[in-house]
Specification:
112 residues
Length: 112
């Protein structure tokens, strides 16, 4: 018995794109012999996957008793390497006491 997976329904949408980006996009399509839709879907999927991961990771950290769960060096380096945050997003005054550090960790999450 074989099972087949139905493809997801598709819808048409439009997007305004700067002319220089469209030229690069068309050049990529020509070089790879792929249609515009192929590259646009790949780019959109990658962007949405990254943004959902970031939003869900941050929401999970905020919901935990330990909001520092995503602030260790390895996770921060991963976020920066994926382009999801910038080093300057981490700038701020350094707490000078344990109490100030704890207060800073429990502060609200601010999106830029």
């Amino acid at each position: 018995m074989s099972t087949t997976t139905e493809p997801s329904a598709t819808v048409t949408t439009s997007l305004r794109v700067p002319a220089d980006l469209l030229a690069r996009y068309d050049r990529l399509g020509a070089l790879t012999e792929r249609p515009r839709s192929f590259h646009l879907l790949k780019a959109l999927q990658a962007y949405i996957d990254d943004q959902l991961w970031l939003a869900e990771t941050m929401a999970s950290a905020v919901a935990e008793d330990e909001p520092t769960a995503v602030t260790n060096a390895e996770d921060t380096a991963d976020l920066i390497s994926r382009g999801l945050i910038r080093p300057e997003d981490l700038e701020g005054p350094d707490p000078t006491s344990d109490e100030e550090y704890e207060a800073a960790q429990r502060g609200p999450l601010r999106w830029r």
